[in-house]
Design a protein that fits this description.
By secondary structure, the chain is an alpha+beta fold. It has helices at residues 6-18, 24-39, 47-59, 86-104, 120-129; strands spanning 68-73, 76-85, 108-115, 136-137, 157-158, 170-171. It has a domain at 6-59. The chain is built from five helices and six strands, in the order αααββαβαβββ. It holds the Pfam family Ldh_2.
């Protein structure tokens, strides 16, 4: 087994993602999320995910479009991810939600047309660090079975409490098959 230092692991992710055309800022965002997964022991969403991102980026004929806000009010927004990797869309959605919540006291931001959003707790910890509570819900293709049901999308939810340090309870609508 090979052990990498954090700087070496970050450099490895940067080398892979730079070949796909990601900017230095985007590489830093993605690498931060992937390394956070590794440090939590969630290697399925860690360094190996960089290869999946590269494979998908190279296999997609149409290049990703810019992330954009397609509708908004003072307390809400809908974003189109432009088929960008979800770590980037999640960052934009979080930044917009935090700004709206600080300005108005509450915010709801939805995002679509994205993939690999990553760990919900990653974004909620950032919201908690900004002094906010949050809730995240996701959806996906019909690849898992809810308990006692047939195949459906997984829609886990997470929300931090107002206590310090943040407590991140998690629930999901799926269960592994028997």
């Amino acid at each position: 087994m090979t052990t990498l230092s954090l700087p070496d692991a970050r450099a490895l992710v940067a080398a892979v993602l730079t070949t796909c055309g990601y900017s230095a800022t985007d590489v830093e965002t993605i690498a931060d999320h992937l390394l956070d997964c590794e440090l939590r022991g969630l290697s399925f969403g860690g360094l190996a995910r960089a290869l999946s991102i590269a494979e998908r980026r190279h296999a997609t004929e149409t290049p990703p479009q810019p992330i954009r806000t397609v509708a908004q009010t003072p307390v809400s927004a809908t974003m189109d991810g432009g088929d960008q990797v979800g770590y980037l869309v999640g960052r934009h959605a979080l930044e917009l939600a935090v700004a709206k919540a600080h300005a108005q006291g509450v915010a709801v931001v939805g995002a679509r047309n994205t993939w690999y959003i990553g760990m919900f707790s990653y974004y909620l910890e950032k919201a908690a660090a900004a002094g906010l509570a949050g809730m995240i819900a996701g959806s996906g293709p019909a690849v898992v079975a809810p308990h006692g049901g047939t195949r459906a999308g997984s829609a886990p939810t997470r929300s931090p409490s107002a206590s310090r340090p943040p407590r991140l309870p998690s629930s999901g609508t799926s269960a592994p098959p028997p």
